[in-house]
Amino acid sequence: MRSCPNCGSAATDEQAFCSGCGAALANEQTTTGPQESHPPNERIGRVVLGATGVLFLGAATAVITYLALATTTTTARISTPQHITATTTTAPTTTRAATAATASSPRPGAKAAAAIASWLARSAAVRPSVQAAIDAVSTCAESPSLGVKALQSSIDTRQAILSSLASFSASGLPNGARLVSQFTQAMQQSLAADRGYQAWMGDLGNSKQGCGSSPAANPNYQRAQVASVQATAAKASFASAWAPVAAQFHEPTYAAAQF
């Protein structure tokens, strides 16, 4: 049993309207029945589902973070060989610098070749004056005394060259010892010829016959001529041996009649 909330009249549980005032009576079974038990279950399910989503999202975030860290580590490991490769590629630069430094240093034998070239240049410088003096004295274009002075300059030069060759080391030169020997012989024969011609000029200056006499009759002139032929042959041999050496060291070459 129950009472009407409007007028207080008694009413049965099954009665839908009040018999006293006609007001609608609420159905307590409908409001308090089993329907009220579903919302709490649904809320629990939603809570569980939400927690599961949070856990899944956290796990997914952890996986993504791990993959990102792994990718970074892999990239760092991959980049390391590139750095090593870059460092390795710098080694040839040092090698090229060392090679350039080595190339800039004098080659073995370069100093010896330069010394021989300088002596050849000195001998070549006095060579024209020798022949010019011989021709001038022979034709009476120049006095014997002037010819003697001209020959003395050549004699001094070639004697100085011979003195230097006596203690010279041709280390590093191809066939250096042979080259020095040939050069020495050429200078010795040239010096002998110069002295012979100078002695002839001295004889001519002291002779009563004076200018115009035949030089072929003079013993000193004859010796000078023989020495001159020998000197030319020695110079030719030396010049032939010197040419390839001079080419290697970028030094000048000479023909036999030039020095």
Q: Which terms summarize this structure?
A:
259 residues; mainly alpha; 3 domains; two-stranded antiparallel sheet; 71% helix; rod-shaped
End-to-end separation in angstroms reads 156 Å
Q: In percent terms, what proportion of residues is strand?
A: under 5%
Secondary-structure content class: mainly alpha
Count all strands and give the number: 2
Largest sheet: 2 strands, antiparallel
Strand order of the largest sheet: 1-2
Tell me about this structure.
The chain has 259 residues and is an all-alpha fold. It has 3 domains: 1-31, no CATH class; 40-89; 109-258. Helices cover 71% and strands 2% of the residues. Helix 6 runs antiparallel to helix 7. It is rod-shaped and about 195 Å long. Residues 29-40, 47-57, 71-95 and 97-102 have low confidence and may be disordered.
